[in-house]
Specification:
The chain is of the alpha/beta class and about 300 residues long. Helices cover about 30% and strands about 15% of the residues. Helix 5 crosses helix 6.
């Protein structure tokens, strides 16, 4: 089989690219965006997929076909990892390189390169996977894409700590090599988020927003250690003294499984968030509230932020 030059086989499992199902995660949105860009930039060659699913070739072709019906696909099963040698690079939509690096030893560590990408780096599981890269057969021609300078700094700190441990355990002469850490921010397909004035007016009407009301929506998981804290958004939404008298209405919904420790709401001091009288009249809480059938540790709240200093 002849492969196109300067391409990569994309490790594909549906969970990493499907944005149609409930409980959408950031890694899935990033995966779908990456696959869409890869299809658009493929040139005249096919798109290569790689994975363990016996139906992977069919499913991968279906995903690619929704992005461009003219795109051709090729499939490499994980049971035949030597097929990656002719492609040259295997792209992994997660930070860990360990499993693929061990599989590559069957044909030789220099036969193809591995390239992964970071998502969250603050959880203990991900930090362990990043630290393990220094003890796995990961080579200097492999790479882990860091989506920001802050992420690269985090990865470097984890690697420094792991390297110190290895020198303490095995001696200063131990050879330590990790992957390259290029910084490539996540891209956004702006056309996917375009809307017209009619759609905007319909959405505002459904939410009961009056002319001049400003809504900010926090999209993500409010998980302090692993994701985000909303305090910075609250501070950004504090209007200047010259702002009009119209209230700034903010609605958010955040649900976490009960397996996590419940955290009381509001996260910021209560005097920063006076209750919004509009909540009970517009049904905003119902629209952005708990997912039916799912246990919640957070509630949905609508808050008005006054233009005056909050007492």
């Amino acid at each position: 089989m002849t492969y196109a030059a300067q391409t990569a086989a994309i490790r594909f499992e549906t969970d990493g690219y499907d944005i149609s199902k409930p409980n959408l995660m950031g890694r899935q949105a990033a995966g779908a965006g990456f696959l869409s860009a890869a299809v658009a930039a493929r040139g005249e060659g096919p798109i290569y997929g790689y994975g363990p699913n016996p139906r992977g070739a069919e499913i991968f072709a279906g995903f690619v076909g929704t992005m461009d019906p003219t795109a051709q696909t090729r499939w490499i099963p994980t049971a035949q990892p030597d097929g990656l040698n002719a492609v040259g690079v295997c792209y992994l939509p997660a930070p860990s390189l360990s499993e693929e690096a061990r599989l590559r030893l069957r044909s030789g560590p220099a036969r193809h390169s591995l390239c992964s990408v970071t998502h969250t780096t603050a959880t203990d599981r991900v930090m362990r996977a990043i630290a393990e890269l220094l003890v796995e057969p990961v080579m200097p021609w492999d790479a882990m894409i860091c989506t920001s300078k802050a992420v690269r700094d985090t990865v470097s700190r984890v690697h420094e700590a792991q390297a110190d441990l290895m020198r303490w355990r095995f001696g200063a002469q131990v050879r330590i090599a990790g992957p390259q850490l290029p910084v490539i921010p996540l891209g956004v397909h702006c056309a996917d988020f375009e809307s017209d004035e009619a759609e905007r007016a319909q959405a505002r009407a459904e939410l009961g927003l009056a002319e001049g009301d400003v809504m900010a929506l926090f999209v993500g998981r409010i998980t302090f250690a692993g994701k985000a804290h909303p305090l910075q958004m609250y501070q950004a939404l504090e209007p200047p003294p010259s702002a009009p008298a119209n209230p700034w209405c903010w609605c958010s919904a955040a649900g976490l499984p009960m397996t996590r420790s419940p955290v009381p709401w509001p996260i910021v001091p209560p005097n920063m968030l006076p209750a919004c009288a509009r909540c009970s009249s517009t049904g905003a809480n119902r629209k952005f509230g708990a997912v039916p059938g799912r246990r919640q540790t957070y509630s949905s709240h609508c808050r008005t932020i006054s233009r005056r200093p909050l007492a």
